[in-house]
Amino acid sequence: MSDSPADPMIGRLIDGRYQVRSRIARGGMATVYLATDLRLERRVALKVMHGHLADDNAFKARFVQEARSAARLAHPNVVNVYDQGQDADMAYLVMEYLPGITLRDLLKDYGRLTSEQTIDILEAVLSGLAAAHKAGIVHRDLKPENVLLADDGRIKIGDFGLARAANNNTATGQALLGTIAYLSPELVTRGIADARSDIYALGIMTYEMLTGEQPYVGEAPMQIAYQHANDTVPMPSLRVTTVPHELDELVSWATARDPEQRPRDAKVMLDQLLDVEKQMRPFDGETGVQQTLLMPSGAAAAQADADTMIFGAAAQAPGATTVLPAPVVKPPKDAELLSTKTRRRKVRGYWLFALVLLLAGLGTGTGWYFGSGPGSQVEVPSLVSVAPDAAAAQLAELGLQSALAQQYSGTIAAGLVASTDPGEGGHVKKGNAVTLYVSQGPQPITLPPLAGLTTDAASSAVTGLNAAIGTVDQVFSGEVAAGIVMSATRESDGTEVSQGGPYFEGMKVNLVASLGSVPNVSGKSVNTATSLLKDKGLLATTGDSVYSDTIDEGDVVSAAPQKDGPVRAGDTYVLTTSKGPAPIPIPDVVGKNWTDAKKILEAAGLTLDYNLFADTPGAGSFFIVTKTDPAAGTLVPPKSKVKISFSA
Predict the structure, then answer these.
(1) Which residue ranges traverse the bilayer (predicted)?
(2) pLDDT score for 408
């Protein structure tokens, strides 16, 4: 976060010792600044509680608790707290300053981490957390934001503001103030946390590092909390197939819904992680044979109440000596046998008493269970087209839970409930969940290119993707064969449908298909031309007549559509007929000799009366034309004969 010139803390001297330089981050309870310890001449992180919380004794106590909790820890993977105090009405903590990023920043940049990177970070975090658990401290807010990755390679856990003594078991109303994505099932259902709750959060973090995603997502915190309490965290390899089986087992062990089935504290999980690392990355000289991993059940441990949890990071110095993992610890056989015999004696001592109580309460309990208790059936109301929050509220009023899922719908607007499971009118036991399927709008589809396909093939391609054919416009085309699609448009807006999309299920596609070319009727008689056009579903009418040197008089010179635009069946063509060749004007040759006049008239397409005497070679130049019949300028058909009068 950039420095704010308006921040009055910048430049301030706190308690006569700490000079504030710049702001690093701001949270819900405090702001963290970079400061200089003038007494020891070192940079520190100064955490200052927000002013509006100064009168809240609970927040002040939590602030002091963070200092006390961290002060009890001296470990290279835990952020050191140097000092705690109050300047006027401002409470503050002085902590070790680690230039670098958080694990959250790393995940944002890289998406997910490799198995080796995950093991390295997890080993450092577990080392610091094991020291906390050994000191009787439960962190209660482990998350990537609280894992600090220093520029020099160190990894540390910080932010023990919500830490409590591991033997302080309370279930207060603040139990669910922590980051919901990492809350253990017992925190969700009972509001109780102990060291195994930290292990659960660390298992969720491990899943997130390996896959780049959290196992449970939802639009509301209630949905995520419900999944933590009722679902089993999937194995990371179901999302990323390259995740080793050993890490799958580690995540499943750490995130078991029953705390008794998890590692009892961070030291147990760290020992197992080192064993996993040894098997995944064997030392030189080993045979390479993989031994079977044993995931021991976590022993019961003390529990603590939970507030909002804040995490830091553990660090591992570069080049640190690798420690061989300790063997998996199993309870001694004698202890197991003693525990089993004790349980059997208790069972034999209490079974008759339990049977009496069972029979006595059976009638009353059965009636309550099926009448108003959890066994009662609730009818699911109509929730289609209702906003998810409103639908969840209706179900809550009926004593039902709700879970969100998504589906595509071509009829229900995006963001509204499209359907439920069970559906309307179905019955659900009180306290159970109804799944609300929220519409994402129509299902996207990708269309193939339609132009060039036959009409049937294009229709099959569209309907096969759950879209529909709107209209099929058939037009004549001299370039595209009959029955072939020329173009396709979206019915809703008329835009051209190109290959790809995305388009959506339920959309209608209009096609333009070719009827083939219009017959060429030039040179045909009017009757023949009319018949040819009729065979194609077209009408014909006779229009103007024009002169033509090539088309006989009365035959069709050309045919054209009566109106502009594409030609469709039923349209009319106008036939232009021939009047024969165009007439020729008689050239004016009076005054020219016979020979020249003859050339001019023949060049105009006319013929002359034959004159034997004038055609005698050399004689034509002596005879001068005095008159033509027809006279000059008269229009006559081509090849007409012209009579010439001349004098010698």
Answers:
(1) 350-371
(2) 86
How many CB atoms are closer than 10 A to CB 586? 19
Per DSSP (E only), the strands in 549-601 are: 556-561, 572-578, 584-585
**Confidence (pLDDT) at 117:** 95
Architecture field, domain 103-305: Orthogonal Bundle (1.10)
**Nearest to residue 455, comparing CAs of 434, 433, 480, 472?**
472
Q: What is the pLDDT of residue 175?
A: 36
Instruction: Give the gyration radius of the chain's Cα atoms.
Output: 48
pLDDT at 6: 64
Q: Helix 266-280 to helix 115-134 angle, to the nearest 10 degrees?
A: 150
One-letter amino acid identity for 624?
Answer: I
Architecture of domain 584-647: 2-Layer Sandwich (3.30)
Domain 444-514 has CATH 3.30.10.20: yes
Per the structure block, which two tokens stand in for 596? 């020249």
Positions of the chain with pLDDT under 50? 1-5, 165, 167-178, 283-350, 352-353, 356, 366-368, 370
Q: How far is the C-alpha of 209 from the C-alpha of 266, rounded, in Å?
A: 18
Q: What is the DSSP letter of 615?
A: T
Angle at 421 between CA 416 and CA 423, to 5 degrees: 85
| Cα–Cα dist 392/433, whole Å | 10
pLDDT reported for residue 359: 54
* Residue 141 annotated as catalytic: yes
Question: Are the folds of 103-305 and 444-514 the same?
Answer: no
Helix (H) or strand (E) holding 303: strand 303-305
The per-residue pLDDT for range 574-583, each reduced to its tens digit, is 999 999 888 9
Other Cβ atoms less than 10 A from the Cβ of 45: the count is 23
**CA-based end-to-end distance of the chain:** 119
**Both tokens assigned to 368:** 């309550």
> How many of the other CB atoms lie within 10 Å of CB of 580?
17
Q: Which two tokens stand for residue 138?
A: 């439960």
- State residue 625's pLDDT score: 87
CA–CA distance, 202 with 209 (Å, rounded to integer): 10
The amino acid that residue 330 corresponds to is: K
The number of C-alpha atoms within 13 Å of 144 and in the hemisphere containing its C-beta is 23
User: What is d(CA 472, CA 386) in angstroms, rounded to the nearest whole number?
Assistant: 38
The active-site residue out of 105, 141, 271, 564 is 141
Residue extents of the structural domains in the chain: 13-96, 103-305, 331-371, 377-439, 444-514, 526-578, 584-647
Per residue, the 3-state secondary structure of 200-223, as one string, reads HHHHHHHHHHHHCCCCCCCCCHHH
By C-alpha distance, which of 43, 23, 19, 41 is closest to 33? 23
Q: Which fold has domain 526-578?
A: Trypsin Inhibitor V; Chain A (3.30.10)
pLDDT at 482: 93
Give the whole-angstrom CA distance, residue 13 versus residue 4.
17
The crossing angle, in degrees rounded to 10, of helices 245-254 and 115-134 is 30
For residue 542, what are the β-bridge partners? Answer: 575
β-strand 641-647 against 81-87: which pairing, if any? Answer: unpaired
Topology (CATH level 3) of domain 377-439:
Trypsin Inhibitor V; Chain A (3.30.10)
DSSP-derived secondary structure for 510-540: EEEEE--PPP--TTS-HHHHHHHHHHTT-EE
